[in-house]
Amino acid sequence: TILILDFGSQYTHLIARRIRELGVYCELLACTVKIADLKFKPKGVVLSGSPYSVYDVDSPHVDPALWTLGVPILGICYGLQEIAWTKGGKVEPHDKREYGKADIQIRPGSRLFAGLPNDLTVWMSHGDQLSQAPEGFKPVAYTATSPYTAIEKEEEQIYGIQFHPEVTHTPKGSAILRNFAIGICGANANWTMASFVDKEIERIRNVVGPTAQVIGAVSGGVDSTVAAMIMSKAIGDRFHAILVDNGVMRLNECQTVQQTLQKHLGINLTLADASELFLGRLKGVTDPEKKRKIIGNSFIEVFEAEGAKIEAQVEQEGKGKIEFLLQGTLYPDVIESISFKGPSATIKTHHNVGGLLDDMKLKVIEPLRELFKDEVRALGSIMGIDDELIWRHPFPGPGIAIRILGEVTPEQVAIARHADHIYIEEIKKAGLYRKISQAYAALLPVRSVGVMGDKRTYEQVIALRAVETKDFMTADWFEFPYDILKRISSRIINEVQGVNRVVYDVSSKPPATIEWE
Ligand code: XMP
């Protein structure tokens, strides 16, 4: 394991991503962690960047025990400055802030840059820089403005670099991280999803024990499906998946998901059809946050009722008790909760339905909590889940209720579903589904005038949304070829009754959001 200590840089999670991509297992912890509290002995430690300056009074510093741990250390950006600050170098604000691409020169002989050319393009983002290296440290890379872009002390295996190898703007960044993690630390590159799945199944069997039962909600999305699949492989029918039909899923979605999970993947699944309950409660409601609350609360209610039914059945059959709740938490959420919060920490809103645990007194089981999204996809693939499901766009919990502006009636649901279905079908036909991060049709609560044959129409508007994004925090609208938009528009207007106008949403996030509500 490589340990990454986070000082609050916006790029820290990318260090973890890049190292995992090398097949090396790594974990991220806050920089303030006590070395004595570590549950594992790392093969090496990476110190991340930070929005702080090492000389700020409240700037974060590592536990001094790190320096005597006896494993290689790589400092990145602030991490380099932390090394210098500790070891007696000099860090100063530079009059010219280095931000963006920079060309650096490497002095031959450094193991960190082994096998790389002597001049590299890298990504910089820092105000402070090293003006004097600590004693015994060799400068191994420099730029026109900085003599200490990289330094090292081979005897102590301490390395520092001013630039960010973890971002894609540093083309040889992965090679540098490989040189560190595998070459210098000697970490094993044996982290694969194939090895993960066997170990995780074993772990779940141990945690759950021989008789306890587990319940969990599935939606047809990749995370919940992969999590359910692992549970099902680990404990078979002692895992009970619950799919709640809230009446605002996409066209035929519940049936398709049920079919796939039950028949194709062999998961023990119960479909709770509560569409009438949800639509009844949504009647007359137009406020987006109210819609979310109604759907969220009703979901918990239906899920708990279904869980209680399963529990009664299980007990009657004398098969043990439901003791665990499966959750599809991923590593980015874990990182979000454990990383060091600097002053510029991003504030992320969590949309997922919570609150289940307090009521049900269940223990949580989270098979995906160590994984990034692409690792979950790879895992799903290994377990035989279809590409179609693995690459499905994310779909919000409140479903198309927040894509129908105004009141959500069964008629509006039918229109929105039909238009959305055509839209997604055409996107898939054009081979663009995987290029787009998220796409959907929104139904607007306005009517506009049109003409059909020689009749005047007065009907509703569909707004098409398609965005490209990496993290869903910022997004660009997708540039469709016009002929595809043309085909989508004419199909929707011709085939969907009640719609006479289609518009395409050309707003990026921010300031717009991805959803219309
Ligand atoms: P926004 O609209 O905030 O969406 O740009 C960002 C991402 O979050 C999804 N989203 C939700 N997901 N419950 C969810 O489970 C919600 O209430 C919710 N609102 C937005 C949205 O689909 C996009 O992927």
From TrEMBL:
It catalyses: XMP + L-glutamine + ATP + H2O = GMP + L-glutamate + AMP + diphosphate + 2 H(+). One of its GO terms (cellular component) is cytosol. Gene3D superfamilies: 3.30.300.10, 3.40.50.880, HUPs. Transmembrane segments: none annotated. Residues 191-392 form the GMPS ATP-PPase domain. The keyword Membrane does not apply. GO terms for molecular function: ATP binding; GMP synthase activity. Pathway: Purine metabolism; GMP biosynthesis; GMP from XMP (L-Gln route): step 1/1. ATP binds at residues 219-225. The keyword Flavoprotein does not apply. Its EC number is 6.3.5.2. Keywords: ATP-binding, Glutamine amidotransferase, GMP biosynthesis, Ligase, Nucleotide-binding, Purine biosynthesis. Pfam families: GATase, GMP_synt_C, NAD_synthase. HAMAP family: GMP_synthase. Catalyzes the conversion of xanthine monophosphate (XMP) to GMP in the presence of glutamine and ATP through an adenyl-XMP intermediate. This is GMP synthase [glutamine-hydrolyzing]. It comes from Spizellomyces punctatus (strain DAOM BR117).
